[in-house]
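User: Here's a chain of 114 residues. Predict its fold as tokens.
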Amino acid sequence: MKTRSPKKKQELDSTISITQKAFIYSCLIPVFGAIPALMALLSDRGSKQLKDVAQISLITVLVWLSGYAVLGDSNQISQELLKATLTSGYFVLNVYLISRLAQGKKVSFPKSSK
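Assistant: Prediction complete.
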């Protein structure tokens, strides 16, 4: 495993402005983060990190919405439990990604590699 030295982390963090960091964090807010994420992907401005985070944010919200839609409008307890589990997982994933971003690590899905 490669470890980054604190100096290198500071160098990477200093290249991104505070407003861009705030915009990156706003993309990871559950549900409402889809709006700034969509804006980031449609604009020509922004860093590669912003585009990656925006893409991840939109994928997670689309998976959550499609799963919620598939479960339908039923009042069965099993489907309601599945909806609650899906929503909880979506929120926990976003909190996990925000914590990785705060630690200066790469924001990606758990167990995914490039």
